[in-house]
């Protein structure tokens, strides 16, 4: 009997995955369901599953954070994703199993069958997933991000982003030459997505590309001066961490 867990923050998706596993894979025992990075990590530690159905987007975190906190591991991961940006391309490139939302029954069966085959043949996913993490870190110069607005799809180079600014549920991306793009997603969603590409959140309203920082001014509580002369505030809590990150760039 193969032990599996589901980690997804959408109750409807949890139920769909549970029903499909039950219908098509009686040899798989569902040991539990979690809905966040923290509860997912704890569930895996407690149950020690052989198969993890893992959502890429988990509210304020991501499925990759779950894996990072559990390395090294030997369980098989099947990603479940609705990503429309570079992450899906990276998953495909790294030859990891994935299921696109909304879930198609045939694709679900094929992905789980591959996972079961690998589990039964005692193959580890660790090497493949490590390649995915390496891809994120080493190829950031060529990575793209898709930004959706009401009128357009903007395909941009991540390194071209200077900084992002939050306005409630909207995020404005700033580029050189005063170009900007406003999207109807919160800045928190992009904080995790861009974490491996030298982006840092010095203040609750800003997400900064550290590669475009010109200097740190420590007066009046401290603020960042970008290469385009924009001044970004730095919270007291984040100042020490920011200086440490810049020293290691």
Topology:
Layout (H helix, E strand, L loop, with lengths): L1 E6 L3 H14 L3 E7 L2 H11 L3 E5 L1 E2 L2 E2 H6 L7 E6 L4 H8 L4 E3 L4 H16 L5 H13 L5 E5 L4 E5 L5 E5 L2 E5 L5 E4 L3 H7 L5 E5 L2 E4 L3 E5 L5 E4 L4 E3 L2 H12 L2
Parallel strand pairs: 1-2, 1-3, 3-6, 6-7
Antiparallel strand pairs: 4-5, 8-9, 10-11, 10-14, 11-12, 13-14, 15-16, 16-17
Q: Can you tell me about this structure?
A:
The chain is an alpha/beta fold and 249 residues long. The protein has 2 domains: 2-138, Rossmann fold, CATH 3.40.50; 143-247, LytTr DNA-binding domain (OB fold (Dihydrolipoamide Acetyltransferase, E2P), Beta Barrel). Helix content is 35%, strand content 31%. It has 8 helices and 17 strands. It has helices spanning 11-24, 37-47, 63-68, 86-93, 105-120, 126-138, 187-193, 236-247; strands at 2-7, 28-34, 51-55, 57-58, 61-62, 76-81, 98-100, 144-148, 153-157, 163-167, 170-174, 180-183, 199-203, 206-209, 213-217, 223-226, 231-233. Strands 2-1-3-6-7 form a 5-stranded parallel beta sheet, with helices on both faces. A 5-stranded antiparallel beta sheet has the order 12-11-10-14-13. It has a 3-stranded antiparallel beta sheet with strand order 15-16-17, with no helix packed on it. A hairpin with a 5-residue loop joins strand 15 and strand 16 (223-226).
């Amino acid at each position: 009997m193969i032990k599996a867990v589901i980690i997804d923050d959408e109750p409807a998706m949890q139920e769909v995955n549970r029903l499909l596993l039950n219908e098509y894979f009686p040899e798989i025992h569902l040991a539990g369901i979690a809905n966040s990075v923290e509860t997912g990590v704890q569930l895996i530690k407690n149950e020690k599953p052989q198969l993890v159905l893992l959502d890429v987007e988990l509210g304020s975190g991501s499925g990759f954070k779950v894996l990072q906190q559990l390395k090294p591991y030997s369980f098989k991961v099947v990603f479940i994703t609705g990503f429309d940006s570079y992450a899906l391309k990276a998953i495909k490139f790294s030859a990891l199993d994935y299921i696109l939302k909304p879930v198609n029954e045939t694709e679900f069966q094929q992905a789980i069958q591959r996972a079961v085959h690998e589990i039964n043949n005692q193959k580890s996913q660790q090497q493949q997933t490590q390649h995915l993490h390496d891809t994120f870190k080493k190829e950031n110069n060529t990575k793209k991000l898709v930004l959706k607005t009401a009128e357009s799809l903007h395909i941009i180079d991540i390194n071209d982003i200077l900084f992002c600014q939050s306005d409630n549920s909207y995020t404005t991306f700033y580029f050189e030459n005063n170009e900007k793009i406003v999207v109807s997603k919160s800045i928190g969603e992009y904080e995790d997505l861009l974490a491996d590409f030298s982006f840092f959140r010095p203040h609750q309203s800003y997400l900064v590309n550290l590669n475009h920082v010109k200097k740190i001014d420590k007066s009046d509580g401290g603020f960042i001066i970008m290469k385009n002369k924009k001044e970004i505030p730095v919270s007291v809590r984040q100042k020490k961490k920011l200086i440490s990150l810049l020293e290691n760039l």
